Amino acid sequence: MAVTSIDINRDNKISDIDDRLYGSFIEHLGRAVYEGIYQPGHPSADEDGFRKDVLELVKELNVPVVRYPGGNYVSNFFWEDSVGPEETRRTRLDLAWRTTEPNEVGISEFARWARKAGTAVMMAVNLGTRGTADALNFLEYCNLDTDSYYASLRRRHGDKPFNIKLWCMGNEMDGPWQVGQKTAYEYGRLARETAKAMKMMDDTIECVACGSAHINMPTFGTWEKEVLEQAYDYIDYISCHQYFENKSGNTDDFFASVDILDRFIDTVAAICDEVKRSKNSDKTVNISFDEWNCWYHTLDQDDERMKKEPWGIAPHLLEDNYTFEDAIVNGLALIKFIKHSDRVKIACLAQLVNVIAPIMTDKDGGAWKQTIFYPFLHASVYGRGSAIRCNVTTGTHDTAGYKDVTDIEAVSVLSKDGTQLTVFAVNRLTGEDAEAQVNLAGFDGFRPLSWLALESDDMLVSNSAEEQKVVPVSKSCYEFNGGTLKATFKAASWNVIIFRKD
User: Fold this and answer.
1) Spatial contact of 439 and 481, defined as CB atoms under 8 Å apart
2) Is 432 among the residues known to form the active site?
3) Under a CB-based contact definition with an 8 Å cutoff, are residues 10 and 388 in contact?
4) Taking Cα atoms as reference points, which of 152, 149, 274, 173 lies closest to residue 223?
5) Considering only CA atoms, which of 352, 355, 254, 350 is closest in space to residue 302?
6) Which residues pair with 130 in a beta bridge?
7) Could you state, in order of their start, the residue ranges of all structural domains in the chain?
8) Separation CA 138–CA 164 (nearest Å)
9) Which of 57, 166, 347, 460 is 20 to 30 A off residue 375, Cα-Cα?
10) Angle at 363 between CA 63 and CA 118, to 5 degrees
11) 454: buried, middle or exposed (CB in 10 Å: 19+, 13-18, 0-12)?
């Protein structure tokens, strides 16, 4: 068996990692909000109706930013309906998910929840059915402490400024499923003028423009270029979205499919830089990968439910029950984001609770962890600091749909205080363990502290409220000598090896 060599040199720094790489997303969709973060009357509910069991799990993940309120939902979102006394709020139909939104949870409530969760809000404005004037009113309501109308309205509602610093200019505006779909030129001009005006009102904010809805859109690439040409001077990030699926049931292909992220990120970054050069700009626009996850388990039944049972309140939608192989795919995606942390500054696991989420709740019971909870937890806890490139010498294999797939993917992160080095590695071989040798250079005095792994012989095993079948295991079967660690990565495994300076 060939030995994979993972060489880590302290001088091979990729970038400082923005903590927001470990963000997430809560949309007014399904049970993400109602019966998710908010359920008055539940045994765990606090004085504001927020589920404390969910809050504790969110705190455990240490999520630095949460995108809100959508998603497709935002393209017909009337923010005014979600503020003020609950009895004055309008109930509205959400066209995106064919449900009814009672607006019991709105801007003030979500900002309060975010404070309790120890996270920041990444707010989206409606550029589908609305525009610049409404976005300005919304920003004034959220952030300003002036004597103007909307700032005064917020004060009358009993709130201090929310000071939201990150704003999305709509969502997936090239998608034909979007309410208010636009051409690249139409959207680019609208995003430009909206971001420009919002920064005139509050020059401390950052703005995210919509990239193409996903890499396989016919508009991909040309959309990014046109939007950037129009809006480059006033935006700070452009968004990317990608979901992974295994409808064919081929695990090897599923694991290999994550490599699309390299091409996706490199292409968008190259377009950003091309526009930067054409404008002779000093500013670099980076990437907000603000939707990513596995999503495929419930697609057919969700379509059927929205068709046959429309306009319900908080129906069970997009409640994928994640498998072990989904957790490995998410681990691979996290490795890719860390590798590209020089350009990907924000990423949002979509979503956080109940809706394609790491955290699930029972209406009358507790909250529990899906399989995908664990790679995200490990990356969020141990993946903050500086990304260090791993030079990986490994074998390759072919799958039914992919050629020359690397057996092992790996990246490392040096903690902010420089005392801890973490190696994240996935063995993509589904039928073979892999011998690995981790070689440290420039890390004198560092010794192995722990090794956490997700392992299973059953790719389709999943967790439930009753039983956690997929959980991290602690491993100690390694050798360490002279800055070299030798270990065996089990087939299809997620591995987190932590070195600590003596």
Assistant:
1) no
2) no
3) yes
4) 173
5) 355
6) none
7) 3-11+387-501, 18-382
8) 11
9) 166
10) 20
11) buried
From the candidates 27, 291, 325, 409, give the one annotated as an active-site residue: 291
Q: How much is the pLDDT for 1?
A: 59
Token digits for 486?
């030798």
Is residue 351 reached through a cis peptide bond, with omega within 30 degrees of 0 on the bond before it?
yes
To the question of domain 18-382 being in CATH 3.20.20.80, the answer is yes
Q: How far is CA 447 from CA 367, 442, 451, in A?
A: 36, 13, 12
Which is it for strands 286-294 and 344-350: parallel, antiparallel or unpaired?
A: parallel
Indicate which residue of 35, 80, 140, 172 is catalytic: 172
| pLDDT less than 50: residues of the chain | none
pLDDT at 2: 72
CA–CA distance, 140 with 204 (Å, rounded to integer): 13
What are the Cα distances from residue 188, in Å, to 165, 183, 198, 223?
A: 21, 8, 15, 9
The CATH homologous superfamily for domain 3-11+387-501 is: Golgi alpha-mannosidase II (2.60.40.1180)
β-pairing verdict for 408-415 and 405-406: unpaired
Identify whether 291 is a catalytic site residue.
yes
**CA 182, CA 127: separation in Å to the nearest integer?**
9
Pairing of the two strands 446-454 and 434-441: unpaired
The amino acid at 131: G
What is the Cβ-side half-sphere exposure of residue 51, based on CA atoms within 13 angstroms? Answer: 26
Task: Give the tokens for residue 409.
Answer: 């993917």
Distances (CA, A) of 27 to 13, 67, 483, 499: 35, 8, 46, 38
Cα separations (Å) of 233 from 125, 206, 229, 303, 395?
19, 12, 9, 40, 44
Are the C-beta atoms of 366 and 55 separated by less than 8 Å?
no
Closest to 414 in 3D by CA, of 452, 375, 371, 382: 382
Question: Token digits for 422?
Answer: 């973490």
* Cβ(215)–Cβ(264) below 8 Å: yes
Q: Give the Cα separation of 411 and 422 in Å (integer).
A: 8
Q: Which residues does 66 contact at the CB level (< 8 Å), separation at least 6?
A: 23, 24, 25, 26, 114, 117, 119, 120, 121, 122, 348, 352
Strand partners, 123: 68, 167
